[in-house]
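Model it.
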Amino acid sequence: MSELLALVKFNSEKALVLRDSLQLTYRKYGDLLIGMDESGTFMNLLYYEAPNSGFKAFGGREFDITLENGEVIHCNGQYWHGGRREAEKVLNEEIISVTVNDVESLKKCYVFSSMFAKKSKVEKLIEEYAGELFMYRDYELNLGPRRG
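Modeled.
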């Protein structure tokens, strides 16, 4: 389960600091790949679109995605970040973009990432959070010296 350790003011939004790093399990739904964490809250969305010689997803970077059924999809420019509307239909949930990272990653490099998440689950995490809202630089100071 994703435990919310802190909320950090990030521009006009709130960034979520999680206890543990997110491990995503991917499933394929037609041309859509949904990678979801074990709590069913946070996700990565990728949609298929054939690349052409001058226009490839992720700049043509190659990587593999292992689906939960063991199938491996070799990505080389054909899977693009996105597909929120399609994922909302598949999951029957409102999906939002969130700013998030885990505390150990932030200690190494104070950079948050954008992910997709189920709105209802994020709202519940925030509602149950009993701590303070940290200002961006104040939370960075709270982490202590960086390792490197």
